Amino acid sequence: VSLVQTGGTLVRSGVVYAVNGWLGSPTGNIIVESQGSAVLNISSNLTTTGVISGAGNIVKSGAATLSFFQPTTAFSGTYISLAGTTILDVNNMFGGNNPTDSFAAVDLEGSSILQINNGTVQTLRNLRGSANSQVQFTSAGSQLILPVDTGATYSFAGLFVDPSGTGILTKTGAGALSLAPTAGSNQLGQVQVLGG
User: Fold this and answer.
1) How many helices, marked H, and strands, marked E, lie in the chain?
2) β partners of residue 32
3) pLDDT tens digits for 153-166?
């Protein structure tokens, strides 16, 4: 199927496969509950206008670029990129900065790229990535915050790329964060460790 609607898509359980991704705009909202997954094959570059929420999985496949412009404070699931580039263009795309907000995890597989643009601040519940994945800070002052709970250990095997030298990685919480790139050296303007 192709998702072409202005209302919304609700996935209560099981998997919805959007074979051609979203066609056209606007994309509408997507709610994925904890037992559900929405798999989106992005075959051409797309900018979303809807909001994602819920506790399930959003899976991006396809080599084209998916740009998010609508922030959420109610997505506590996992965003999984199997290929291509995902762009975060406004603050708090996968969770807000308030204690009551939900935060999503991000899993970058293969050579997937997550771009943090426009000097925005992003908070993720967890960040995982394969050796060939990248998190790119493409604009001055862009920041990624990773809260790690007590007793937890997060490990990211991909690369941080920061051409401007002004990106900020902030680790909070009493848990452990392991950065172990195997495909090169991390480029980070600033690393802040506020706990753990």
Assistant:
1) 0, 19
2) 11, 54
3) 999 999 999 988 99
Per the document, the length of the chain is 196
**Interatomic CA distance for residues 134 and 81, integer angstroms:** 11
Q: What is the largest CA-CA distance in the chain?
A: 46
Rounded CA gap, 154 and 110, in Å?
A: 18
- pTM of the predicted model, to two decimals? 0.90
User: Which amino acid, 103?
Assistant: F
- CA distance to 96, 107, 189, per residue, from 72 (Å): 7, 18, 27
Q: CA nearest 114: which of 76, 166, 67, 172?
A: 67
CA dist list (Å): 34 to 68, 93, 195: 21, 19, 30
What value does the mean pLDDT take over residues 31-59?
86
Give the rounded distance of the alpha carbon of 7 from its chain centre.
23
Bridge partners, residue 86, by sequence: 66, 114
What is the rounded CA–CA span in Å between residue 33 and residue 83? 23
Residue 47 amino acid letter:
T
Confidence of residue 178 (pLDDT cuts 50, 70, 90): very high
The alpha-carbon radius of gyration of the chain (Å, integer) is: 16
Nearest-angstrom CA–CA distance, 92 and 168: 15
Quote the tokens at residue 60: 């991006």
Task: Check residue 117 and report its DSSP letter.
Answer: -
Rounded Cα distance between 159 and 52, Å, is 26
